[in-house]
């Protein structure tokens, strides 16, 4: 941008057009550079905040985590286009799982939640990049995580519209809270009022951050 300003100034001088002082060119380019940095920062901030699905869609965020006891826990929750929490589920495995296996199992749990509640038009979000990559490719690899991912792909065929995408962990924190705090007593399809306050508070925080960036 600075080079463009200098060349414009040179052409104006050579061809006799109205000139612009070099100081003003520098100030103008500084303002453009500052605006570009601000735009980049806002884009980065937005990518770290949960985004509501389009009207008519349900977004299901899923995550897996390792609890203090060393076992892997899973969490999934569904919200509509207003950010309203519809249903959620949490589950514990009996052992510590490889991260990719846990993320694939969490994705399958989210699909089971959607099927249990007869949801359709689904957006799935996970911060498990490897599993999301396999979903996008349409097949799992030869690992255990790949096998569970193949189960997910089969389940996905039962929905009219469904897509899966990867997100940053910061935009998936409610699912992380769900996985970390909810025990096996959380039944499939728990209603919002039955969930721990920590999960409901995390949902409220997501909503407030989304409003701030609009």
What would you say this structure looks like, in words?
This protein has 214 residues and is α/β, with parallel strands linked by helices. 49% of the residues lie in helices and 16% in strands. It has 7 helices and 5 strands; from the N terminus they run ααβββαβααβαα. It has helices at residues 2-14, 22-47, 99-116, 129-137, 144-156, 173-181, 197-212, and strands at 58-66, 72-79, 85-92, 122-126, 162-166. A 5-stranded mixed β-sheet has the order 3-2-1-4-5, with helices on both faces. A hairpin with a 5-residue loop joins β2 (72-79) and β3. α1 (2-14) runs antiparallel to α2 and α3 (99-116) runs parallel beside α5 (144-156). The longest helix has 26 residues, at 22-47. The protein is globular, with a radius of gyration of 24 Å. The chain starts with a helix and ends with a helix. The model is unreliable at 38-46 (pLDDT under 50).
């Amino acid at each position: 941008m600075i080079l463009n300003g200098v060349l414009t100034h040179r052409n104006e001088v050579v061809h006799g057009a109205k000139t612009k002082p070099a100081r003003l060119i520098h100030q103008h380019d500084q303002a453009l550079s500052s605006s570009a940095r601000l735009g980049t920062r806002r884009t980065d901030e937005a990518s770290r905040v949960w985004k509501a699905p389009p009207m008519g869609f349900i977004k299901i965020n899923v995550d897996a985590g390792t609890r203090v006891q060393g076992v892997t826990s899973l969490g999934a929750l569904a919200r509509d286009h207003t950010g309203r929490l519809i249903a959620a589920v949490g589950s514990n495995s009996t052992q510590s799982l490889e991260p990719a296996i846990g993320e694939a199992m969490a994705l399958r749990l989210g699909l089971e939640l959607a099927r249990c509640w007869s949801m359709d038009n689904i957006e799935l979000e996970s911060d498990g990049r490897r599993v999301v990559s396999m979903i996008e490719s349409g097949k799992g690899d030869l690992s255990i995580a790949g096998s569970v991912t193949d189960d997910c792909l089969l389940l996905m065929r039962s929905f009219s519209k469904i897509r899966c995408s990867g997100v940053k962990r910061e935009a998936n924190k409610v699912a992380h809270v769900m996985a970390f705090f909810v025990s096996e007593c959380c039944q499939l399809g728990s209603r919002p009022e039955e969930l721990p306050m920590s999960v409901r508070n995390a949902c409220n925080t997501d909503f407030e951050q989304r409003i701030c960036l609009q």
